[in-house]
Known about the structure:
With 213 residues, this protein is of the alpha/beta class.
Amino acid sequence: MTKSARTYLPAAGRDLFLPLYDPIVKLLGGGAAREALLAQAGIRPTDRVFDLGCGTGTMAMAIQKQFAGVEIVGLDPDPRALARARKKAARESLTIQFDQGFGDQLPYPAASFDRALSSFMFHHLPPEEKGKTLREVHRVLKPGGEFHMADFEGPEDHKQGFFRHLLLSHAHLKDNSAANVIGLMKDAGFADAAKVGRRSKLFGGVAYYRAVK
């Protein structure tokens, strides 16, 4: 199946809502959640960093602002979100590589990155793509490289809040329990895969994961 023939969920759920995506994420506390993920990742100034499901580029831009020497590559299947990311980076005079593609078919050689990060993307993947995506992330990380991920907790891990009922379908989260996510990480070849933290947000609980190649 070609890249153009595949379906994906737009960054804002619908293309119509894309202009509202960044302010809504900020309003709901997504910015603070991503800051916590960056602090957890322990990025070094010489690292090459991969942002999986980069959306409109907010996290990739935050990384480059904090670590000027870091090379950052962001990937997302949504061309409209990527166009917005490129415009945002250009306005800030930031040099970030934004690529269109899918997580289970990464267009990068093996051992390309020191760190891989992902925020609030994993639960959108169909069950059959989750393991493939994690195996691809494992492949493109260098030996000793780390994968850091933040995503919504599954219903087994935390009671769903009112806003999460409005924003997310239960079907998207049913496979997002910590036990399932960690199991998939281990099956993909990661060592020391673990849930290393959680935070409560307006839209529900957020789980933080770390896995080492």
